[in-house]
Amino acid sequence: MAQDSYTEFVNTGLGKKITKALGLPQPAKLRRYRPDAPVIHGPVVLLGSTEASDILARHLLGWGLDVRRHIGPKEKVAAVVALFDSVATPAQLSDTVLAVGGLLKQLKSSARVITVFRDPAHTEDPAVRAARKGVEGLTRSLAHEMRAGGTANGIMLHEELDIASPSVAGALRFLLSGRSAFVSGQFITVDSVNGALPDDWAAPLEGQVAVVTGAARGIGAAIARTLHRDGARVVVVDIPAAGEQLAAVANEVAGTALQLDITDDDAGEQILDHAEQYYGRLDIVVHNAGITRDKLLANMDSSRWDSVIAVNIESQLRMNRALLNSELFNRPEGTVGPRIVSLASTSGIAGNRGQSNYAASKAGVMGMVSASSSQLQARHGTINAVAPGFIETEMTAKMPFATREVARRLNSLNQGGRPEDVAETIAYLASPAAAGTSGLTLRVCGQNLVGA
Ligand code: NAD
């Protein structure tokens, strides 16, 4: 992994002075998740409609947080949760928005602003949709304005959804916590009442069995470690050539290794057989293995194009078919359903010069996820994608220095994310508390300036 010496320098006394005087970016040290730490340190201020905020307040109080409706002008604020669930015209945004604005100068470092509102797509009323889209716009803009490692995100509720649904609390907790350190300017949709809050928030995946492909190194190894930390038993998958590294990761997470090329016709069946043989169950599959073979389209050859499509998307479609045909990956109603989480990329959203093959495959992942959602829901499960932006890995360490430095700073947090940041979002989407969210692509990109 390439070292981000600039961020380290900025976070020294002298470094801060010099870089501020020169007007240079100010990447902050981000607050990251620790199972033994509180969800967030300091007061959480609830603003907006009272009925809904009473429901959310009960969760926050249950998590031991200091919940306030008002706060003194000199007090520091850890988070603001702004409820817009009943706005009917853009003119109605004003009171709550300006109240949020009034608190921004009191925010602590790595603070959170979270907006909660109904999905704009679920109304045909122009004024109501305009108001809801307004919440989207203001949340994204606020994310660009946050300082000192702070983020702004939204929770978008289905029209009919009861705000007391477990997955609303699950999304709120994820966004408040250090798990979402590198998620900013994004929206988590909650579409169903499905979901269950864990007895132990430090082990939300207790008793579950997860498979992670491409887990010998990089983001995949981080996913395996994070799922293991959260209580899952983990099968790590990678190509035979990466066997030694794969065995090391398997040992570290007290899991099992499966050497497999995911482009094999029977890769899905091999995964199912392994899970059946060693654990007798399979709950979570993370399609992380992926490759790049960059070339401008004018110079593209069939081996580069076909290999990227084969590894990054065709293999996933084939494996999902096998999973969905298997009783091992099915659940009776009322139990925690199976989960699939795929790795997309911001390149698949915005496109990227030299990556037409990669962007086609990653946009394909997003299409697959949204189209497969109903099939998973029929099994009481979910399928989602995570789109990382610039993440500090061996892959990005190989970029030329200047390109890497620019790519790293081109987001609202002015730094690259870590493999753990991607892993935390995947662990959240795989957890029972996210059962109400399916078909979503969630970006982990520090609000990268490319893409939507
Ligand atoms: P990496 O190259 O470090 O690791 C990928 C792993 O997948 C390797 O261990 C490799 O052996 C394995 N793999 C490749 N082809 C395989 C196959 N056919 N069968 C089984 N295993 C195979 O990559 P990374 O940076 O850790 O990225 C992981 C995922 O995240 C990829 O899907 C990538 O596209 C995506 N992603 C990464 C970034 C980033 O900044 N690093 C950004 C966006 C998306």
UniProtKB/TrEMBL annotation:
GO molecular function, one term: oxidoreductase activity, acting on the CH-OH group of donors, NAD or NADP as acceptor
Domain Ketoreductase: 208-394
SUPFAM superfamilies with a match to the protein in the record: NAD(P)-binding Rossmann-fold domains (SSF51735)
Top-rank lineage group of the source organism: Bacteria
Protein family per UniProt: Belongs to the short-chain dehydrogenases/reductases (SDR) family.
Protein name: 3-oxoacyl-ACP reductase
Organism name: Nesterenkonia salmonea
